[in-house]
């Protein structure tokens, strides 16, 4: 890719893509493609920067519209369709640079960007692996998020809206992959589970469950996953009581949801200690269920008779 030319000219090689535009969508595939291009350039010793949209910009990235075109010797555009108004504006600004497009789709309008060296992903007679395949990855914890609906039975003790705002902040700040889950089941809605088995199976694939629902706590632990339970009712209600019954420590009250206690509880839930504690909590719950069973049958025995 003429990397030696870029170094001899002393200019900057800029990596760009649809992730460079503030008004465009940024996808996981786009950013992994950028990582692949960065690795290739870094391994070749090419001085480069990534042009990144404001929402995703790191300290080392640049805003392409603010760069002096004279400082950029090479433009490397990666991923997505190589056409459209934003792409034309980018190519026009850096018209003097050597332009290379890698891992892109050749579509109507691509020809207007000439001259450009094409290493196409797909187009007439072309099929190459997408650059995202080579992007470096690290494992991020998966957080299943189970939110409670409003509960008017608690009157003015409800703090659901405020608590969920704090959860939003927690999930935005934490390095976790949030996955919305719903305890509501329906056999005809494809975005919902149809059976409890499916729901618990989905929870079991998570590293932590973050919830304001009682059954988010119970089913999360049943799935063998640590649970950050937040009681959305001021003063504590059924979520707090269930955590006590299960002897589960990671419960945060509504009045603490805006404090460091929330972050600390999530951090603990992602430790091996929390994973080990799940088994103890399930055992505590089973002891409680045994007592409930005895009491239920004792209440039935006088009217139904028998020695059972």
Question: What's this, in brief?
Answer:
With 308 residues, this protein is an alpha/beta fold.
* Contiguous helical run count: 9
Estimate the strand proportion: 15-25%
Q: Which strand order spans the largest sheet, edge to edge or round the barrel? A: 2-1-3-4-5
Number of strands: 12
Q: What value does the average pLDDT take?
A: 93
Largest sheet: 5 strands, parallel
Q: Estimate the helix proportion, in percent.
A: 25-40%
Report the oligomer: single chain
Low-confidence runs: 1-9
Radius of gyration: 27 Å
- Along the chain, the helix and strand elements come as HEHEEHEEEEEHEHEHEHEHH
Detailed description of the structure:
- The protein contains 9 helices and 12 strands.
- It is α/β, with parallel strands linked by helices and 308 residues long.
- The protein has a 5-stranded parallel β-sheet, covered by helices on one side. It has a 5-stranded parallel β-sheet with strand order 9-8-10-11-12, sandwiched between helices. Strands 6-7 form a two-stranded antiparallel sheet.
- The chain is elongated, with a radius of gyration of 27 Å.
- It starts with a helix and ends with a helix.
- Mean pLDDT is 93; it is low at 1-9.
Features:
single chain, 308 residues, alpha/beta, five-stranded parallel β-sheet, 12 strands
Task: Summarize the SSE layout with pairings.
Blueprint: H1 3-8, E1 12-16, H2 28-43, E2 48-50, E3 72-78, H3 85-93, E4 98-102, E5 117-119, E6 122-123, E7 126-127, E8 142-146, H4 160-173, E9 177-181, H5 196-204, E10 208-211, H6 214-222, E11 227-230, H7 238-245, E12 251-252, H8 260-269, H9 272-304
Parallel strand pairs: 1-2, 1-3, 3-4, 4-5, 8-9, 8-10, 10-11, 11-12
Antiparallel strand pairs: 6-7
